Amino acid sequence: MAVFALTTAVPAAAQDGRERPAVITVSGEGEASVAPDMAIVTLGVVRQAKTAREALDDNNKAMAEVLKQLKANGIADRDLQTSGFGIAPQYNYPTDKNGQPMPPELVGYQVTNTLTVRLRDMEKLGALLDTSVSLGINQGGDIRFTNDKPEATVTEARKAAVASALAKAKTLSEAAGVKLGPIVRITETPDRPQPVPVYRAAVAKEMSDGGAVPIAGGENSYNVNVIVTFRLEQ
Fold it and tell me: How far apart are CA 75 and CA 47, in angstroms?
């Protein structure tokens, strides 16, 4: 939807004593899509035991195996980051024979260790998920598809946004019976364009390893919004 303002010249008696030129301001929206080249995966190990020490030792052992295997498969240290860790007591909430609640009973401890993995070889994603579960991952699996260097795609979206604004301005000026002049200001929305996943069945690909998890990467759509002000020729 076009958002525009048409401002006519004001009298010379304006506050600054000068006549202001007539302008038109429109919005422009641009979008460009590209296949993701990186996946960010969240993997978690959860272990429970009667004591915090036992739970922690079990968790450490499982996570150490996961890290070892990921590194053996070519994941660099810079792409492995601990993103969460917690130790929590576990309680049982009994009731008496009348169904009334009784004081909670401490039954053990739970340790959670969460790992964020940046995978730059998308072909390995299905196998990574499968291997991680086999090694002890039992929580997480959240996947975010992104692009390592999206600048070229964002540039395409910016060009499309400006072109959209120009087309709107031409239509509005012609409808108003005025001539469109040069651009006097371009403003992009302050938020950096972020990828919006676009899932398409055509791009779904089952990994060659029959035991791997089938993954559909789809495309990332980068959106840019601009506000453009044009001068109007009298």
Answer: 24
Together in a domain, 156 and 209: yes
State pLDDT tens for residues 18-49.
Answer: 677 899 999 999 999 998 999 999 999 999 99
- Distance between CA atoms of residues 161 and 82, nearest Å: 38
User: Are 38 and 120 contacting, i.e. CB atoms less than 8 angstroms apart?
Assistant: yes
C-beta neighbour count of 13 within 10 angstroms: 7
Q: Is the whole model's pTM more than 0.70, yes or no?
A: no
Nearest to 227 by CA among 192, 183, 194, 193: 183
Give the DSSP letter string of 39-75: EEEEEEEEEEESSHHHHHHHHHHHHHHHHHHHHHTT-
* pLDDT, position 204: 34
- Whether residue 198 sits in one domain with residue 176: yes
**CA separation for the pair 154, 30 (Å, rounded):** 9
Inter-residue contact 62 to 47 (CB < 8 Å) = yes
Q: Regarding predicted confidence, which is higher, 209 or 24?
A: 24
Per-residue pLDDT reduced to its tens digit, 75-105: 999 999 999 999 999 999 999 888 899 999 9
Indicate whether 108 and 199 sit together in one domain: no
CB atoms within 10 A of CB 195: 20
User: Which residues form the domain of 197?
Assistant: 5-35+150-233
